[in-house]
What we know:
The complex is a heterodimer of chains A (721) and B (327). Chain A is of the alpha+beta class. Chain A is built from 20 helices and 28 strands. Chain A has a seven-stranded mixed beta sheet with strand order 3-6-1-13-10-11-12, with helices on both faces. In chain A, helix 14 runs parallel beside helix 15 (515-533). In chain B, a hairpin with a 2-residue loop joins strand 10 (241-250) and strand 11 (253-262). Chain B contains 14 helices and twelve strands. The structure holds flavin-adenine dinucleotide (FAD) and iron/sulfur cluster (SF4).
Amino acid sequence: MTPATTFVGSPVSRVDGPAKVTGAAVYAADFDIPHLAHASIVQARVPAGRIAAIDTRAAEAAPGVLAVMTHETTRRLPWHPRDPRPGVDPKAGERLHVLQDDVVRYDGQPVALVVAQSEEQARAAADLVRVDYAPTAARTRFDVAYARAPSEATAKAGRPGDTSRGDPEGAFAQAPVRVDVPFVQPREQHAAIEPHATIAAWDEDGRLTLWDKSQWVDNVRTEIAHVFGLAEDRIRVISPFVGGAFGSGLRTWPHVTLAALAAERVGRPVRLALTRRQLFTNTGFRPHTESRVRLGAFPDGRLTAILHEATGQTSTYEEYAETTLTPARQLYACPNVATRYRLLDMNVNTPSPMRGPGAATGELFLETAMDELAHALGMNPLELRRANLAKTDPDSGKPWSSNALAACWDQAAARFGWADRPRTDEARRAGRERIGSGMASAFYPAHRAKARARVTLYANGGAMIQAATSDMGPGTYTALSQVAADALGLPLEQVRVEIGDSALPPAPAHGGSITMATLGNAVANACAALRETLGADGEGDLTPALRRSGRDSAAAEGASSPGKEAQEYESAAFGAVFAEVRVDPELGTVRVARLVGGYDVGRVVNPKLARSQCIGGMVQGIGMALSEEAVFDRHCGRVMNANLSDYLVPVCADVGALEAFFVESDDRVFNPLGVKGLAEIALCGVAAAIVNAVYDATGLRMREVPVTPERIVTAQAARGR
Amino acid sequence: MQPFAYRKIHDVAAAIAQGAGEPNTVFLAGGTDLVQLLQDGIARPAGIVDISDLPFSSIATTIDGMRIGALAKLADVADHPQVRAHYPALATALGETASPMVRNMATTGGNLLQRTRCLYFRDGVSSCNKREPGSGCGALRGEDARAALFGASEACVATHASDLAVALLALDAEVLVAGPAGERSIPVERLHTLPGDTPWIDSDLEPGELISAIFVPRGAAGWAQAYAKLRHRASFEWPLVSAAVSLAVVDGMIEDARVALGGVAHKPWRAEDVETLLIGRELDPVLAREAGEAATEGARPLAGNAAKIPLLARVVSRALADAGGLP
Ligand SMILES: Cc1cc2nc3c(=O)[nH]c(=O)nc-3n(C[C@H](O)[C@H](O)[C@H](O)COP(=O)(O)OP(=O)(O)OC[C@H]3O[C@@H](n4cnc5c(N)ncnc54)[C@H](O)[C@@H]3O)c2cc1C
Ligand code: SF4
C-alpha cells in the first residue's frame, strides 16, 4: 500500500542548506588530509604532434618540488578496457592515456605534472617545464566536409547516423509549406562554480582513497581500478558535496589518474585542483554542433515531413556523440521523418554531456525551425505545436507512460498571457526597445537505472539513508530525506542522508535526470523492507516496532531497477517555455524580460527545489541564447576565453522575471514514486523560445547562438536594415 | 606565479625611489588587475611596492575642477555627489564598470593602467608581442572580434579596456604624476600610447612614476554629457564599444564638443572630426546619426571585427541622444 505523504510534495527547504551557507559542507579540494602535497599540470601548447624534448631540470630544482612526472618518467598503467563501457563514456575510441606516450592530441592536454610542497610552488615550477614539440597537421576548423558517420557502437547507443520512417524526402518535396533552416550552436562549457579537484591517498596496504568532485563515485572507483589494474575493493571514492557540475562530473577525467599517480610517486597524499583555465580542456564541454532542419506541413499545420541533419564535434581519440536528433523523431506526430547525424573529429579534448545533452541542442534547432514554419504558415506558433501533439511516441509507436505536454502549453500560455502578447509594431514598441514574444516546447526522455539504498533506523527515532549517489545541487539530500521520512513515519529532521561515498550501496550516475526515479524508489523500497523485517505494516512511525523488537537499531536494503514498463512504454518529461524579450534594435542588445515555463515532470517531490532547478535551467538557457560561447582559435586550436570574465555566463542583470510551475502529473506507470526526473528539461526549449522572441521583436531570423549585438547588426545589414 | 619581494610603502618619495631604483618593480594598488596578471604568469615582477596606504584617496572639489585621488575606489567616485551632479558621464562610466565588488576594491589610477583584455595577452601562452616581444600577434590572424579599429599596428591590434579613461578623455581631464624627476601633469589623451612597434608599452609613464590624482576641469561641469557602453552581458563586462560625449550647448546650439570612443583603439580614442562636425549645429536625431557615421571614418577592420563599425556608429549616436535628451 502507498504510505501517507507528509513530506513528499511539500516545499521543505534544502536539508543541506545550513551546512552550505555556513561553510560546514566539505568539497573535494577542502578535505584536510595530513601531509598533503600539491600537483600542477603542464599543458600541451600545440593541437597535434609529438613531444620532441622535455626539459624538467629547472622545475626539479625549484623550491619545494617533490617530483616532475612526464611520459618518460611515469610508469605504464594497464588501462584495462571497460566492458561494457559506462553510459557516460563515449562508445568508440579510447580514453586519454595520460602521461603514457609522447603524442599530443589537443592543445591543453596534460604533458607533465609537477608535485610540490605547496600549490604555489607546484604552479611556479610547472611554468619552468620546457617542452619542445614536433607539430603535426591538426584539424582545428569546424568543416562539415570532413564529417563522418558515427560508428556502429555509437549507433546502437541511440545515436544512429541515419534513420528514416515513411518517405521523408518525398513528403517534403510535396509539402504545401516548407522551411529549410540552418543553425549553429557553438561549443559551450559547464562553468560550474566548483572547479574539479581530486585528493589521492594510498595507504601502506596499497589501498587508494580518492576525494573527488564527482557525480558518480562508483564509476570513479571502477574506472581507476581499470586504469591501475586494481581490484575495486582496494579503492574508495568520497564526494559528499558537489558545487555544481551540469554533467562535467559524470566521467572520470584524466586528472583523477594523475592525482593517484602523483600520490604514488611521492608517497604522500596529493591534491590536484584544476585551475579555471584548465577546466576548459581537462573536463568536457557541449560540442559545437551545426544543423539543418527541413520541415514540411499542410496548410492546417500538420507536419508531413521532418528532416533533421546535425554534425557535432568530437575529439580525435574518442567518439562522443549526442542524442541531438531524438527530439526530431519523438517530439511531434509526423509520419515521415529522417535524421542524419555526423561527427567531426577535431583536435580538441573529448566533449561530454552538459545539461540537457543532445536534447537542449536538438530542441534549439527544431523549435526555432518550428517557429519559422509557423510564420510560413501564417499560424500562431502555439497552435502549430497543438496541431502536432504526439499522442503516442511517434518513433516506437508505444504509448507514453504519461504526457501532459498539452497542459504545459495551455497553462504556460495562459500564465504568460500569450493570447494578449503585443502583435502590432505599435504595441511592440517600448521607448527605444522592441518587445518580442516567443515560445518553444521542451522534451527530455526519462529513464531509470539500477540502484540500491540502505536504511538504518535507531531506537532513539533517528534514521540514516545511505547510497552512493550524489547531489550536485538539485536536492538529492532533501528529496531522499522526504521520501524516507514519509516511509518511516518520522519527522524530516530525524532522517539523515549519507551519499557520495563508494562504500555505500551502489548507485548509477547522478545525471540524465534519473536520480529521483531511481534512488527515490530504492529508498522507498528499503524503508518498506525494514517495515516488513520489523513486522510492522501500514503506516506511521516505525520506531515503536523497533523498540518492541528489543534492538538498538535495524537496517534494510532496497533496490530499484526499471521493470517491463521500460519495454512497454516511452517515458519523458515535457514542458513549454514562453519568453518575452526587449531588443534595442539600435545597439543590437537583447534582454530577457520574462520567462514562463510549465513542466510535466511527474510527481513533484519538492516544489521549492523543483522551482529552483527550473529557474537555474532558465538562467543557463539565457546564457545559451545570448552570451555563452567558447572562443576557439582556428589556427592554434586553443580555447581563447577559458576564464569566467570572457566566457560569459549570465549575471543577475541579464535575468528578468522567471516563473516556473508544474502541471498536474503523477507517473505511476513509470515508477511507483510517480516522478519522471527534473534536471535537463529545465534547459530544454529556453534558448529556442528566446531566439523566437527576438524574431518577433525584430523580424530577424537569428540562426546562430549566442545572439550578440554583432550578429544582430550583421543580420540587419543582410536584410537591408 | 613567480616569487617576488613585497613591500608596503607609506611614503610617496620612498615609493618613487623604489619604483625607479629597482629593476622590474611594479606598484600595487587595489590589485584587481595586477593580482590576476601575477596569477596567470603574465606579470613577473621581481618586486612589488604596495602603494595602497599612500595619501592619494581623497576626492575634492577645487575652484577650477575636481581632484580625484589615484587611490580613490571606483565605487566612491561613482557615488560621489559632486561627480554625480557635475560629471554624469564619469558617474555612468564608473557605474557600468565591473561589478560592485570589484568597484569597492579597484582604484582610479589602477583602472587607467589596467592592461588590455586581448584574449591572447591574457591566456599567458599564446603568441603576443605585448606580453612577449617578438613572439607575434595571435589576435591579428586569430580571433579578432574585439580588435582595434583605429591606430593599430602590425605588431598589436589590442584595445584599451577602461571605461573611466574614455569618460575622462571627453571631460578633458589630466592625470597628475609624481616621479623621480618631480611632478608633472599629462592630459588623459596623452597618457596612453599607440602600439606601433613597441606594443609592450601602454603608457607614457616612466619607471617610478606614480599617478597621484586625476584632475577634471571645471569647464566640463556645465556641459551636457553622456556615456554609452555596449557589451554582451548586461553587466560585469568590459566595453565592446563605448562612447563618451560632452557638449557645450547654448540656446540649442552646440558651441563646443568632445567625443571619445572606447574599445576601438590601444587608447581611449578622441574623435575630433566628430567634434568638428557637431560644433555650430543643433543636436537632433539626424545629426546624432550623422555624427555616429562620422565616428567610424577611417576605421580599419580586420577579418572578424567589422561588425564593430556599425555598432560604434550607433553607440556614438546613442551617447549624443542621451546627452541631448533625445528619444
Ligand atoms: C572582473 C572584472 C571586471 C572588470 N570590468 C571592468 C569594466 O567593465 N570596465 C573597466 O574599465 N574596468 C573593468 N575592470 C578593471 C578594473 O576596473 C581594474 O582592474 C581596476 O580599476 C584596477 O585598479 P586596481 O587599483 O585594482 O589596480 P591594480 O591591479 O593594483 O594595478 C593595475 C596596474 O596599475 C598600476 N597602478 C595602480 N595604481 C597606480 C598608481 N597610482 N600609479 C602608477 N601605477 C599604478 C599597477 O602597477 C598595475 O600595473 C574589471 C576588473 C575585473 C577584475
Ligand atoms: S593584439 Fe596586442 S595584446 Fe593582443 S595578441 Fe596581438 S600583440 Fe598581444
